[in-house]
Specification:
Blueprint (H helix, E strand, L loop, with lengths): L3 E10 L2 E11 L4 E5 L6 H9 L6 E6 L2 E5 L4 E2 L7 E4 L11 H11 L4 H14 L15 H13 L5 E5 L7 H18 L2 E6 L2 H7 L2 E6 L2 E6 L1 H6 L4 H6 L4 E4 L1 E6 L2 E6 L2 E5 L8 E4 L4 E3 L5 E10 L4 E7 L4 E6 L8 E6 L3 E3 L3
Parallel strand pairs: 3-9, 3-10, 7-8, 8-9
Antiparallel strand pairs: 1-2, 1-4, 4-5, 5-6, 10-11, 12-16, 13-14, 14-15, 16-22, 17-21, 18-19, 18-21, 19-20
Length: 347
């Protein structure tokens, strides 16, 4: 395995910039998720790593090997990068059984039958497909087809594995099961993996780190926990998880920590910046209590299974979100106690 490095990589399609000077490193053996709204550039970044697209600017390295350089027009083709790619559509040959689908890349490389059989057996075992080797793709479930695509990717012992929304076509229950398959595979093999998704739950459940993308740039690359508890911008705070972003003023720093004025009150905040301007209020920052200093009106109640999401309007006019174990009604007035929220700069 090896780390993947992008240095000031940009990609333009005509006058449109799909990526804008992205510089980042996927660590050796890391599971990195690329997360963001449609059109943010995550699939373009994946295709550049695979060699399906050539960068307009910048350089790409796989380990110590340079595989793309816009200035010198170097672009090592996909088949020479030793990168595995798992597509959303599975891309299986319908006339080949599972073993032949998995082993086809080895046929192209003209490996001996003994070598092919050994590698195919190992790939089928790693993806728990050994009993299905003689079946045709049409006889498999969606989850089994996706595992065949993963096994075909693994059979060539790739330097890294790239996955482009591989669970998007599966139902909710099957997606949860396949998340475990991908996570277990990563733990067993320590493969370097880059996983494109628009589903936060998938990214949070599987990735070591998540690169949140928007408008062609990586706006924050961090662990799932840090993205949720310590967002660095309004976009990340609003895109990741539930909650609200409210303005704050008058931040001061002292021996007891930082304080600022928000929701019409002077409160303690968690921050690592000298001049925070916004606070991220997650549902767990707000506790319903009649003695709470913050008053709010319930605007909407949504049942989430065992708990209720409450959309609120504070007396200050700010929109808030919290959760309750009991059902409240729109129009109810409640009190809230606020634990120290995370505060960050506006930019």
């Amino acid at each position: 395995m090896a780390e993947l490095t992008l240095s000031h990589v940009a990609k333009h399609f005509g006058d449109a910039a799909a990526l804008k000077s992205v510089s980042t490193t996927v660590r050796d053996g890391e599971f990195l998720a690329l997360l963001g709204p449609s059109g943010c550039g995550k699939s373009t970044l994946l295709r550049l790593l695979a060699g399906f697209e050539q960068p307009t600017e910048g350089r790409i390295h796989i380990g110590q090997r340079e595989v793309a350089n816009a200035a010198s027009r170097l672009n090592v083709p996909p088949e020479d990068r030793n990168i595995g790619f798992v597509f959303q559509s599975y891309a299986l040959w319908p006339h080949m059984n599972v073993r032949r689908n998995v082993g086809y890349p080895l046929e192209i490389r003209k490996l001996s039958k003994a070598d092919r059989d050994a590698r195919i057996d190992a790939a089928l075992s790693a993806t728990e497909l050994t009993p299905y080797g003689d079946r045709m793709p049409s006889d498999l479930s969606g989850g089994q087809r996706q595992r065949v695509a993963l096994a075909r990717c693994l059979v060539s012992d790739p330097t890294a594995v790239l996955l482009d929304e591989p669970l998007a076509n599966l139902d909710v229950a099957l997606r949860a099961s396949m998340q475990e398959v991908f996570s277990d595979f990563h733990r067993r093999t320590s493969a370097t993996m880059v996983y494109v998704t628009h589903d936060q739950a998938e990214a949070m459940a599987m990735a070591d780190r998540i690169a949140v993308m928007n408008q062609g740039v990586i706006v924050q690359l961090d662990t799932p926990e840090a993205l949720y508890t310590r967002p660095r911008s309004r976009f990340v705070a609003e895109f990741i998880g539930e909650g609200a972003v409210v303005p704050l003023t008058g931040a001061t720093h002292g021996d007891a920590g930082a304080e600022a004025t928000l929701l019409g009150m002077r409160l303690r905040v968690e921050t690592d910046t000298e001049h925070p301007a916004l606070a991220c209020l997650r549902p767990e920052n707000l506790r319903i209590t009649e003695t709470g200093d913050i008053r709010a009106r319930v605007e909407r109640v949504t049942y989430l299974g065992g708990r209720y999401r409450l959309d609120l309007t504070a007396a200050s006019g700010d929109a808030l979100v919290t959760q309750s174990a009991t059902r409240l009604q729109p129009g109810d007035q409640i009190g809230l106690a606020l634990s120290a929220p995370w505060a960050f700069a506006a930019a």
